[in-house]
Amino acid sequence: MYREVLVLFYFEEFSIKEISNLLNEKEGTIKSKLSRGRNILRESLLKGGQFIGQER
Fold it and tell me: What's the distance, CA 52 to chain centroid?
C-alpha cells in the first residue's frame, strides 16, 4: 500500500500531483501514504527488521 507511493516519489521522482493523477487518489491521500510509509520504514530499520529479498 505504501511501497508504490514511496517508490514513485523517491526512486521515480514523481511529484505528489503526478502520483495523485496516476493512482487516481487525492493529493492529501498521497501525502498521508508517504508519511505513514516513511514512518513504517523508519521503525523497521531501527528495529533491524528484514525486508523481502534481503539476505540473512
Answer: 15
Is residue 34 within 8 Å of residue 48, measured between CB atoms? no
Total domains in the fold of the chain = 1
Q: pTM score, two decimals?
A: 0.81
Outline where the chain has alpha helix (H). Answer: 3-6, 16-23, 27-46
> What's the grid cell of residue 21?
493523477
| Selection from 13, 11, 10, 14 nearest residue 23 by Cα | 14
For residue range 16-51, what is the model confidence (pLDDT) as tens digits?
999 999 999 999 999 999 999 999 989 888 888 666
**Segments forming the whole domain that contains residue 17:** 3-46
Place of cell 513504517: 40
